[in-house]
Amino acid sequence: MVKNHLDPYFGKFLLKNITIRVVQEYINQKVKEPLSARTVNKTVTTLHTMFSYAIRQEFMADNPVRYAVRPQAGQTGVRLPQPEEIKRFLNAASPDYFAFFATAVLTGASRASLSPCAGKTSTSIGALFASNAPSTNSTVNPILRPGAGSAR
């Protein structure tokens, strides 16, 4: 968390120069990335904890994270694939992995939840879908519906 998210952004600042505005700009930037609100909030919570420690050590007087506006659940920078993109992807999938990919795409499985199942295979679909929640888009499910045309 610190290495991948916080240090690249905040590592260039002196502690005294990290203001509410700097923290809010970090949050705004992270929300635009393909990260869930939950992930962004985890990084902000870690940052808050770090500043709380700095206050206890008397390095600073107040915690700038305390006043930042955090993203709400459902806010995300993730772009879900369109039905046509899913069709193209499934048509290109190896027959050995077709059922796996179709299930993953149509249930909204996350890349992290697929990693133990597919090993390196899940990395090839990471950019295609990144949602942690099942899709509520009814236009996606007809892809494999009988009579809707074969996805293979």
In short:
The chain is mostly helical and 152 residues long. The chain folds into 2 domains: 2-67, Tyrosine recombinase, N-terminal domain (DNA polymerase, domain 1, Orthogonal Bundle); 83-144, no CATH class.
Describe the structure.
The chain is 46% helix and 0% strand. It is mostly helical and 152 residues long. The chain is elongated, with a radius of gyration of 20 Å. The chain folds into two domains: 2-67, Tyrosine recombinase, N-terminal domain (DNA polymerase, domain 1, Orthogonal Bundle); 83-144, no CATH class.
Would you give the CATH topology of the largest domain? DNA polymerase, domain 1
Q: Strand-residue fraction?
A: under 5%
CATH class of the largest domain: Mainly Alpha
Order of helix and strand elements from N to C terminus = HHHHHH
Helix content: 40-55%
Number of helical regions: 6
Average pLDDT = 73
Structural class: mainly alpha
Q: Domain count, please report it.
A: 2
CATH superfamily (homologous) name of the largest domain: Tyrosine recombinase, N-terminal domain
The biggest beta sheet is recorded as: none
Distance between the termini: 40 Å
Oligomeric status: single chain
Uncertain parts: 120-152
Instruction: Write down the overall geometry.
Output: elongated
